[in-house]
């Protein structure tokens, strides 16, 4: 018992330290992994290999194509950036052929465009791709290296490490990053390596150590993969939902919109469901060749406003119908809400009829409804009114609801009620 308690106390140590003031809303940006993986063959495939050129070009696209202004500010390097060995001083070094200018020069380039640079490490002997990992004795040194380079976010993976090493190393890296004095958002993969659920994962402690964390499997470029993530997150929402909030987010992994595996409807669904989950919006796609329709989904202003809502409450699935329609609700600031009607059907568009009363909105309230994708505003929907939405197969209809009139006592509740309490999810 004592050793378990000692471990818990050790894990709790950085609780004061990590409140680093960062990631008050879910981080947004671009990440290399899902689309470009560990392609290091720059001779055969110079345009798509993991090299400084790829990151220079993606930084240009974020800065010039309207992404940065919407909040997409991080350019994140994933695995396979480093040389195969540390240098004589034990320091991580970038691959000299693929990153000849060095990471500091890349960070400077990114910062000059009003963007931020993220980098990848792994708490273990090797990274998942077989590059040098960060053993416990290197945690402090690597944190200092990243800070000296001007890095703004660190994703710390967990391949080739034991549960004990992770229990020591993840909190230690939080302390080491803070000790550098440089603001570095800290993304950890710790829960994903421990099955993502209690008792192995303590989300209270995790939220004191990391700004965001990967809970579950890597996303792949397929609808099946998106659905498996959605299923896991919402099946376990009672555990996961309370863990998220300003400065500490569940991360269901990258947005694959704009790649090869999702249809138009499925792309809209991923964006809506990630937004309802208060997920980081980290795109992994080729911004040089992205289609207008994928870009339109990812640059939807109202969607991003909802994702970045300052209350930072993660949404929940509130209805699961036999008709394979599901309804998700995310409470927002100023007593507003986001509703997502999602169809798992594979046959034809489905007309779904319900009312806000059935979705536990407060009685006698009136809402202005805006369709997030269409943009159209439907005025004055009363809680008791029945309404219908037509949802395409594997698609969504997403609404943003602003209260036009609320019973007076509920305005008070709306300001004070804590997440997960009471029977009025619209006001959480």
Automatic annotation (TrEMBL):
Q: Which InterPro entries match?
A: Aldolase_TIM, GH, Glyco_hydro_27, Glyco_hydro_27/36_CS, Glyco_hydro_b, Melibiase/NAGA_C
Residue limits of the Alpha galactosidase A C-terminal domain? 312-395
EC no.?
A: 3.2.1.-
Per UniProt, the keywords (alphabetical) are: Disulfide bond, Glycoprotein, Glycosidase, Hydrolase, Lipid metabolism, Lysosome, Signal
Single biological process term from Gene Ontology: glycoside catabolic process
| GO CC annotation terms, alphabetical | lysosome; membrane
Q: Name one Pfam family in it.
A: Melibiase_2
Signal peptide positions on this chain? 1-17
**Which molecular function terms from Gene Ontology are attached?**
alpha-galactosidase activity; alpha-N-acetylgalactosaminidase activity
| Claim: Nuclease is one of the keywords in the record | no
Q: Which reaction does it catalyse?
A: Cleavage of non-reducing alpha-(1->3)-N-acetylgalactosamine residues from human blood group A and AB mucin glycoproteins, Forssman hapten and blood group A lacto series glycolipids; a neolactoside IV(3)-alpha-GalNAc,IV(2)-alpha-Fuc-nLc4Cer(d18:1(4E)) + H2O = a neolactoside IV(2)-alpha-Fuc-nLc4Cer(d18:1(4E)) + N-acetyl-alpha-D-galactosamine; a globoside IV3GalNAc-Gb4Cer + H2O = N-acetyl-alpha-D-galactosamine + a globoside Gb4Cer; a neolactoside IV(3)-alpha-GalNAc,IV(2)-alpha-Fuc-nLc4Cer(d18:0) + H2O = a neolactoside IV(2)-alpha-Fuc-nLc4Cer(d18:0) + N-acetyl-alpha-D-galactosamine
Question: Which domain of life does this protein belong to?
Answer: Eukaryota
Where, per UniProt, does this protein localize? Lysosome
Q: Does the keyword GTP-binding apply?
A: no
Q: Give the protein's function.
A: Removes terminal alpha-N-acetylgalactosamine residues from glycolipids and glycopeptides. Required for the breakdown of glycolipids.
How does the record describe its quaternary structure?
Homodimer.
Family (UniProt): Belongs to the glycosyl hydrolase 27 family.
Query: What's the name of the protein?
Result: Alpha-galactosidase
């Amino acid at each position: 018992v004592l050793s378990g308690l000692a471990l818990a106390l050790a894990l709790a140590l950085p609780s004061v330290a990590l409140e680093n003031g960062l990631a008050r809303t879910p981080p947004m940006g671009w990440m290399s992994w899902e689309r470009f993986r560990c392609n290091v063959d720059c001779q055969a495939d110079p345009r798509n290999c993991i090299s400084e050129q790829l990151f220079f070009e993606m930084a240009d696209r974020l800065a010039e194509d309207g992404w940065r202004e919407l909040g997409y500010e991080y350019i994140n390097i994933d695995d396979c950036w480093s040389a195969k060995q540390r240098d004589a001083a034990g320091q991580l070094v970038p691959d000299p052929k693929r990153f000849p200018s060095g990471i500091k020069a890349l960070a400077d380039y990114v910062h000059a465009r009003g963007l931020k640079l993220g980098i990848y490490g792994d708490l273990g002997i090797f990274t998942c791709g077989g590059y040098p990992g960060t053993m416990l004795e290197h945690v402090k040194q690597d944190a200092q290296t990243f800070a000296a380079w001007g890095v703004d976010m660190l994703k710390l993976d967990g391949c080739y490490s034991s549960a004990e090493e992770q229990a020591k190393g993840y909190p230690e890296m939080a302390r080491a990053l803070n000790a550098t004095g440089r603001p570095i958002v800290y993304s950890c993969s710790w829960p994903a390596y421990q099955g993502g659920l209690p008792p192995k994962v303590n989300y209270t402690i995790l939220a004191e150590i990391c700004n965001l964390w990967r809970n579950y499997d890597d996303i792949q470029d397929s609808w099946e993969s998106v659905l498996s993530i959605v299923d896991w997150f919402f099946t376990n929402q009672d555990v996961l939902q309370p863990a998220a909030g300003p400065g500490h987010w569940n991360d269901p992994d990258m947005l694959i919109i704009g790649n090869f595996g999702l249809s138009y409807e499925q792309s809209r669904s991923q964006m809506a469901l990630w937004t309802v989950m208060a997920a980081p919006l980290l795109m992994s796609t080729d911004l040089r060749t992205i289609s207008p329709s994928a870009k339109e989904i990812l640059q939807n202003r109202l969607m991003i406003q909802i994702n970045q809502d300052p209350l930072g409450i993660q949404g929940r699935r509130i209805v699961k119908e036999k008709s394979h329609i599901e309804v998700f609700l995310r409470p927002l600031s100023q007593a507003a809400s986001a509703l997502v009607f999602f169809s798992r059907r594979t046959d034809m568009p489905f007309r779904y009829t319900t009312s806000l009363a059935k979705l536990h909105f407060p009685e006698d309230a009136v809402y202005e409804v805006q369709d997030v994708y269409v943009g159209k505003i439907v005025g004055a929907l009363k809680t008791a009114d029945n309404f219908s939405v037509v949802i395409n197969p594997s698609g969504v209809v997403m609404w943003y609801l602003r209260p036009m009139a609320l019973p007076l006592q509920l305005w008070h509740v709306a300001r004070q009620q804590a997440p997960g309490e009471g029977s009025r999810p619209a006001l959480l």
